[in-house]
Write a structure and sequence with these properties.
Elements (H helix, E strand, L loop, with lengths): L15 E3 H6 L7 E10 L6 E11 L3 E10 L3 E13 L6 E6 L6 E2 L1 E5 L2 E3 L10 H4 L2 H10 L6 H6 L7 E2 L2 E2 L1 H15 L2 H9 L1
Antiparallel strand pairs: 1-8, 2-3, 3-4, 4-5, 5-6, 6-7, 8-9, 10-11
Length: 197
Amino acid sequence: MGKYATYPTEIERLKMISITDLKRMKILNPDSFISTSINWTNQSTNQNNGSISVSIKTEQNNGIITFDYTYRDVDKINYTALLITKPSNLGKGKIWFFVCPKTGRVCRKLHLINGYFVHRSANPNLMYEKQLESKKMREWSKMFGIMLNDEVYQQLYSKHFKTHYNGKPTKRYLKLMKLIGQKENTSIEDFERSFLM
């Protein structure tokens, strides 16, 4: 009798909490206490895809975040993770990080793995979507993915995007301009030719 196929879990499909999201929601500030809910939305249907309660208590340079939620409508889960700060490499201010409650890794994102928000290394079998693509698909994606990607223009014209810093073009700006150049120099004929190879 044959084996059942086992497919690795894709990191992109996991629920995730990031320091960036907490800052954007204005719930991660020094010397504060905030208790709120975090909701996930299904991008395709725009419907609520789950929520959890969090409490964040911080001092000037550290703090804790407490997670409180029901996992798979059965298990009531409540635990904390440490929050720490490190000086910015630009020499201005500090940057917040989680300390993974399972692995002890310092990180900016925690993923929901086996019912707990932890660093992705807590499950060594996780893979990124790109790692699961076939060799041919990766080649096509590299050659023609840019034709289907309009995010480069959205990033370029986003509200606070900086094209120059101290009179020099930023690395991000140069990278976007390279991608836009590739996009404009790739034709449908190139794409059709690749199918005949």
